[in-house]
Amino acid sequence: MANLLTARRARIGWDWTDWAAHIYLVLGTLIMFGPVLWLVLSSVKSESGLQAFPPTILPYEQASVEVPQRGGALKLFTVTAGAHAGETLAEVRRMGLQSQLVDPAAPDKLIRVKLEERTPVMRLHAAWENFTELFSRFAFGRIVWNSLFITVVATLITLLMNSMAAFALSKYKFAGRDPVFLLMLATLMIPPTIVLVPNYLIASQLGLTDTPWGVIWPAVATPTGVFLLRQYMLTLPDELIEAARMDNASEWRIYWRIVLPLSAPALAVLAIFSVMWRWNEFLWPMVVLTRSESFTLPLALNSFQGELTTQWHYLLAMTVLTLLPVTAIFMVLQKHIAQGIASAGVK
Amino acid sequence: MNPISTLFAFLMNLPERPMRWAQGRLSKGRLGWVFVAPNLAVFALFTFLPIAFDIHYALTGGTNLLPSQRPYVGAENFASLLDCTDHFDANTCHRDLFWHGVWNTLRFVVFQVGLMLAFSLLTAIVLNRKIIGRSFFRAAFFYPVLLSPVVVALIWKWILQREGLLNAAMIGVGAEPTNWLLDPHWAFFWSVFVSIWAHMGFYTLILLAGLQAIPAEINEASQMDATPPWRHFRRITLPLLMPNVMVVLVLGLIRAVQVFDEVYVLTGGGPGSATVFVVQYIYKTGFADQIRQYGLAAAASLLLAGVLLVLTLAQMKGSQKKNG
Questions:
Q1: Class of the A61-124 domain?
Q2: pTM for the complete prediction?
Q3: Which chain B residues are within 8 Å of A165, Cβ to Cβ?
Q4: How far is residue A325 CA from its own chain's centroid?
Q5: Per-residue pLDDT tens over the stretch A242-252
Q6: What is the pLDDT at residue A98?
Q7: Which ipTM did the prediction report?
Q8: Which pLDDT tens digit goes with each residue over A108-147?
Q9: Structural domains in chain B plus CATH codes
Q10: Cys-Cys link to A269, which of A24, A340, B21, B257 (CB 3.0-4.6 A)?
Q11: Is A199 close to B126, i.e. CB distance below 8 A?
């Protein structure tokens, strides 16, 4: 009997559903991850490389050679027909339908070739200058700093304030505790999109517009964070706290020396969420930050892409820099992020 | 000790004295309020107070931001928003852009949530099988969830532009290249597509967690009875997964109603008003237009809040059923 069962369940080969499942996943991965890969590959193409149509997959650039006698760097071509067919020459100038080329080894002798009888010599070249020039040409460092500052400071304040509230809501008994908890949860129903106008008024009355604090403060108290931390702290044994009280530890000390370290796993989940929220936040910063010096990365990207002649080579590099930190966090903490979302059902 | 933890300890010790002082004077219950106070203050200032102000703005007119400087106009903002000859035709409305937004949002919600639910469910079921490289595939489907909406929009804008990858592929297979984002129908299609692309990983994860919670014995029993796969899915998997499906449905609806970020950067609401949504109308009316009509923006916000309230209550009812 046992044999019969295992025999029936043994997987001898792949049936069609196995094939279908794997094909679906491979195609799906291509659609989900391919566009990101395409962005990264494109971001290291030179400005002229980006204009090539149809586009190449890898970043190519026309090779050039230094010919001092002819005034510096000249572009390389391969001659395809005529007496010089097969030779690789450097172009000095174009005259009408003809190209004047020289042999880099013997730059004195001009060789004339019809335009259609030469093809550019392409070589693999990653245009890292797309990235470095962002910092020299657009005060990009300032924007990265704004984003980093907001993300880090807001996350620290969020962790501190939400854990304080969660501590009281899980470890104290006091009149009004449960209504306060419900009230905080109820704010889930009031997303920031609903209160844009009045929040703008309050931020401007407090002098927070065009400052990082205008972005930071309105969202530091998160219902998600309070909920997550409270549920976790409820599982911590009260005896620990009682023992500390016996030793005459103050309540504040109990909070940050005992409860906070023990809540590290939940704090880590909230920290990851908060970093993602803050780094990616868009609508509210766009309302409260109007001067380009105070922009965060998403705002800079948006205003840069809206300009009339989009400079894609810079825009793509900027986009890659924006997704880089999030990608790094994801690679390191993938498991925790997935578990955090699955358990809390929040984003 | 390393300097960071020293600094941390120093900073965290700062409230020690005032808190000890408060502890000596207050009962333990009162001390609880001290811990809750900072959080509560931020909620009060940036969530509860704004709701009251929203109502004030919605009932007053003019372009002044200061509440005291705004003339009372009664329900005029609402009346103006709702004023249509034919509500099904946005062009006959006084505020036609708002109604384009309303109908676009409705269409968006139906397609985006419906298709996203279908694809997340399919992906979760596939990922729940014995798959080679399962954690890699799971990560690949989840990765876009973490990206900034602006990044998402730019990734696709780069592919969909006139001389982008997609048009190159179209020419490669002998088809006509298309100006994807300049055609109203295609622009709407891509808003839905990109939004599903960006969010489905999150919902797939919720559904996958639900599938993995189904006891193995149930599946084995059904396998022994040689239940056909489709019947197994309809009669066993789906009913057991229903609570998670409800969570996905309602969370998806709440988010889809507020669609803005990705689509705004991708299409800017165009061409024409083909991809204008309600939140974009609020942003545009209150902040992006030359004349800032805060009253109209607040009135539209309150109408949106009503829809969200209904959806949230539905979710609460759903999750109560799940727990009870």
A1: mainly beta
A2: 0.84
A3: 35-36, 38-40
A4: 6
A5: 888 888 888 89
A6: 81
A7: 0.84
A8: 777 888 877 888 877 777 778 788 888 887 788 899 999 9
A9: 3-58 (no CATH), 76-323 (1.10.3720.10)
A10: A340
A11: no
Out of 1.20.1740.10, 2.30.30.210, 1.10.3720.10, 3.20.20.140, the CATH code matching A131-344 is: 1.10.3720.10
Residue range(s) occupied by CATH 2.30.30 in chain A: 61-124
| CB atoms B301 and A197 under 8 Å | yes
Looking at the complex, does the CB of residue A16 fall below 8 Å from at least one CB of chain B? no
Query: What number of other Cβ atoms are within 10 A of residue A51's Cβ?
Result: 12
Check if A326 contacts B (Cβ < 8 Å). yes
DSSP string of B132-201, one letter each residue:
TTHHHHHHHHHGGGGS-HHHHHHHHHHHHSTTSHHHHHHHHTTPPP--TTTSHHHHHHHHHHHHHHHHHH
- The dihedrals phi and psi of B129, each to the nearest 5 degrees, come to -80, 175
| Contacting residues of A for B297, CB less than 8 Å apart | 196-197
- Phi, psi angles (nearest 5°) of residue A194: -80, -30
- Report the b/e string of B260-291 with b at 16+ CB within 10 A: bbbbbbbbbbebebbbbbbbbbbbbbbbeeee
